[in-house]
Each structure stands twice: as C-alpha cells, then as structure tokens.
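ping. complex inputs:
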Amino acid sequence: MNDFSVVSLAPLSVLLPILGAAIAFTLVRRPMSQIVVTLATMVITMSLEIWLLVDVWMNGGAEAVLLGGWEAPIAISLVVDRFSAIMLVVSSVVVLSVLLFASAQGLGDDEAPQQPVSIFHPTFLILTAGVSNAFLAGDLFNLYVGFEILLTASYVLLTIGGTGPRVRAGVTYVVVSVVSSVIFLVAIAMIYGATGTVNMADLAMKLGDLDPDLQQLLHLMLLVGFGIKAAVFPLSFWLPDSYPTAPAPVTAVFAGLLTKVGVYAIVRTETLLFPGDRVNTLLLVISGLTMIVGILGALVQFDIKRVLSFTLVSHIGYMIFGVSVANQVGLTATVFYVVHHITIQTALFLVTGLIEYRTGTANVDRLGSMAKISPLVAILFLVPALNLGGIPPFSGFLGKVGLIEGGVVNGSPLAWVMVAASVVTSLLTLMVMMRIWTRVFWRPIEDSEDPAMRGMEEAKRAEAKATPLRTDSRGLVVPTVGLVTVGVALTFVAGPLFDFADKAANDMIHRTPYIEAVLGEEAAQEAQLEADVLEDWGISGSDGAGTQQGSEGGSGD
Amino acid sequence: MTIDAVLLLIMGVMFAAAVYLLMDRTLTRIMFGLMLFTNGVNLLIIIMAGPAGLPPIVTDGVADDEYLDPLPQALTLTSIVISFAITAFLLALIYRSWVLARRDEVQVDIEDIQVAEQPAYDAEDDAELTEEESEFLEDHEDPNIDYELTTRDEPTVRPHDPKEGDRR
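pong. complex structure:
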C-alpha cells in the first residue's frame, strides 16, 4: 500500500454511479429515498473526482489504471490526466446541480402527469457513468462503450413520458446517434485491422507509421463520428431539433455535457492520435461555419430552448476553432472554454426551466414582464447571458480572448478570417441574448404577440392576469443560483485555471505524459522523438502567452 | 493479412442496403436499416480478425499464424449487445409513435415549419408605428395596419395539411 495513489480509485467514478443507479432502481416505489440515494451517490462521486483533480493539480502529469491485472497495452486502461480530471469535476458539478433542480421540480408536474418519474434518477446516474467512462477511457473501444452508455441513457431521458413531440424528436435523435456510433465503430475496426491495437497510447505510437492516405481516411472517419456527436456544422442539424423537446433539466445536462464529450474526443484525436496539420485547414473552415450558421439559426427562433440550442451549436465552433489553430495558446483556451461553456450553457437552460415553471411556456412571443414577475429570475438570466455573449469581466470574455489570441498566433489569412468570424459570432450571441432579455423581461405582457392573448376579450385578459402564477420554488432557485455562481466564480479563478489549462494543453501536445502513464518510460521516449510535430504546434515561441492574459483578467476584478 | 472476399462483399451489400433503407421516411424501414448497419460493422470487426478456421486460443509456443486473434470476437460481442439494446428501444419508440400518430412515418416538426415560414420582416423589431389616438378606424385609414396584420392571430401551418412527399 505504500505506493497508494488516489488515481487507482478512478474507476470508482464510473462504478459508483452505476451502483447508485442499481440501488435507485430497487427503490422505484419510494421516490424520496430514490432521490436521497441518487444525490448521495453524486456527492460521493464528485468528492472523489475533486480529490482526483487536486491530486493531478498538485502532482501533475498523467496516471493510468490498468484494469484486470494485465499489462498495457492489453489491459483496458483508464487514464487520468489534467484535461480528463477537470472535465470529470465540471461534469459532476453540473450533473449534481441539475439533479437537485430536477428533484425539486418533481418531473411529474411537467406536461404528462402519468410519466414514469421513477426511472428518471437511475437513468441520470447511468448517463453520468457513461460520461465519466468516456472522459477516462484510455482505449478507443472503451471510449465507444462510454459513448454508448451515455447515449442509451440519453435516449431514455429524451423520450421520457413518451409524449408526441418527444417521440418525434427521439426517433431522429436515436437514428442520428446510432449512425454516428456506427461510423466510429467502423473506424475502430479499421484502425484495429491496420495496427492491431485499440489502446490510445499504443495507437499514438503506431498510427504514425501507417500509409499517409490510410491515416487520412482513419482520421477523417473518427472526426465524422465525433463531429456528429459534438454537433459540428454540417453535422449539427439534429441538435436543435431534438434537445428542446425534453424536460428542462434533461435539456440542461444534454446541452452542457453530451456535445462536450464529442469535443473532448475530437481534442484527443487531434492531439494524441493524429497530431500534425493534416486536416487543420478543414477544421478551421468548419469551425467558422459552425459559429456563423449556428448563431444565424438562433436569430430566427422564438422558443428560448431552441435559441439556446442554436447558440450551443454555434459555440461548439469556438472549441473546434481553438483546436484547429494548432498552437498551445489555442488549445489552452479550448480547455478553458469547454469548462466555461459547460457551466454557462447548463445554467442558462436551468433558468429557462425556471421561466417555464413560472409561466408555463418558453416561447418568447408569449412571455413578457418577467422582470416584474420575478426580478430574481431576471438576474439569474442576465448574468450567464452576458457571460455567454462575452462581456468583459466574465469568463466567456477571457475564453474568447484566449481563442482569438490562438488565431492571431496562428497568423494564416484563413485564421484571421475565422478570428473575425468569432468576433461577429460573439456580437450576434449578445444580440440574441439581449433580444430575449428585452422581450421576455422588459416588454409588458400586454404587448406580447401571443395569439391567444390577443384574441381574448378585455375582461378575460384581466381574469387571466389575475390568476396567480406559481411562485419561485426554492428548490429550483437554489441549484440555479449555485450554478450561475460557479459560472461567475470561473472569472475569479481564471488565472489559476488558465495556468492549469496551459499545462493540460502542454501535456496533450507533448503526448509523452499520457504515453508514459500507460506504456512506461521507454515508449514515451520513443514517442518523444517526433520533434518536428511539436514545432508545428509552435511549442518553442508561444510559451504561456494566454496564461498571462488570463491571470491579468482574473486578478483585475 | 488475408481477407475473405465473400464476407467483404456481404458486408458491402449490407452497408449499401442499410444506407438505402435509412433514407426512407418509414420508421420500420429505418429500423431495418439500422439493424443492417450495425450488423455490417460487426461483420467488419470479424473480418479484421483474419481468415476463419483457426482456434482463438493462445498457448506458449504457438506461432503468430497458428491462432486467430480473439479480441475482435470480444469486441463484436460487446457491439452486438449494444445494437440489440438499441434496436429494442427503437422498436418501442416506433410502436409508441404509431400509437400516438397512427402513422409509421417520421413526424413533421410543426414548430420547425413555423420558423421556416415566418417572414423576414418581424413586426416587433421592424415596424414603424405612428402615434394615433383615434379608435374605430377602418383598415385602410389605420396607419399601423402593417403591424396589426403581421402580429394578428393567424396560424400559418395546419398540422394535418398533407405535404408533397409525405406519402407515396
């Protein structure tokens, strides 16, 4: 036991939620104890993951757990490095607050009163297990299994209650997700056929020896598979179609987490498996299109959930942009931006849930006077909305500055075009958010475009106004406040966080910590030889420029 | 690596049929398409193990070409289980869809069409309203008639409006 490390407990962050789900399933007839079990599981898992993060933060580097007592690369390995540790913690924080929200909401008083609430909590835990597994996976097939666990859970959550719109959206979502998984699986099979391994560290060493054309093919297949999951344009059509129909807490966690798992996989592909600038130009163009097309979609929507789904697609573009500029500043900013975006996007969806709870609709045309109805909700909306739009003191601004700096360091004409595109997208995001802000919160309800309200007689309208709206439920407000606070807190810890992200990016670009953790030192030294690849990433000159920027912004408040 | 041409051909046919079926609007056909799709991949993984015939058992002293790689079989088993579960779920979903809509087809998203059909002109953003005090104006006298026309109660989409391509 003398060489005990908390990393050897990493598999528990997958196992605990599954165990908790099993216990929760047995308590189907006791909703209260089910909630208690679920929340307790999440709290324990989160503490464990925070411990992991602290360990990684202090000691640095990457560590691997080899399951089943086999040697790498035969064993299934789970790898904890800086990037995966921070993703684990952020995902748990988000899931915990959404679970609190959902427990207070009592899904029963949603549209369909007869829906089977009892499966909600266990399924949520299984979703968490899948997400953790995907973040920890050290081999491609385990990553596939992680994806499948979280997707299958998400199918259930998306169609919960089985109402008409949800079934309609669910069918599209299931079909699209299965197709993306199949493409991923085909890529795995072909990679296995070409190299004889699915271990990512092992692949990092072997893929480089393949025929360049074959490499290109495998690389693109992986990117298409992950691109569908991450909702990258033009593979993003399914997302705004399916997410908005689900209950608010479900949409919140989907928007926050599921696409980010795809982004995480893309980052791993680009850094660990296929370093080099083979597809960077393509990714750069795609990231710009994702930003612009996504936000243009948001401009025409009149349902808040749909608007937010489109901004989600648009902001995935930012993360891809940070990866595709292929330098350390960009990658650092991507890590930071993913953390920021998970928190903010989930918070915004929770606030939408609050609006829906108060008024029974999330349709901008039917809403009005929200600032008067509930000033608290107004503040809770404004803060993350400004954050998403990239208004200076907030973390959204810092992340975007980092990304733009990455584009500037890259320096190619195309990168400049994309820098411009990202600034435009940021402004348009702000415009979209302010449209919601002025219409939902400041416009008097009498001026709303609600056809039902317009057609009503004056007396009836007065009567409708006299009917008291539901008051804010404390159980719903507290988790939302918590998550919004976390989002604001990201600004204050931006300095250390950027520092951490910088080291994470450095680890990922060098690849050696990851490979050393799994395969040992000799393999790592062998992998290190590819110095020309490192030069492509601009490792020598750009040391920590983004870091300083971040700490200045952080301490400035 | 030797590859069985027949298996490869079958896999290709399965993928081709799967893609064809996935293009359909009928839910059952889509499901069959997905089944073919996932099983096509299973076949691909098996092909990657090498030629059939050898036992997947390794003992000390067995040469590289005297046993079959057992890992692809393990991978296939996992992916069969996953595709089985998803097919079952999809079947339940299709049944539910049929119970609700009585149609074995991908349903049209009404809200999507509403968004698509809304004019570029948004009254609330773009209308220029003139101050007018009088009530009971005839339409042609009302300076703000544009605004009222664009925001009045007029559902543009009827849910059961059959569209071209809905049925063949």
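Chain A has a mean pLDDT of 82.
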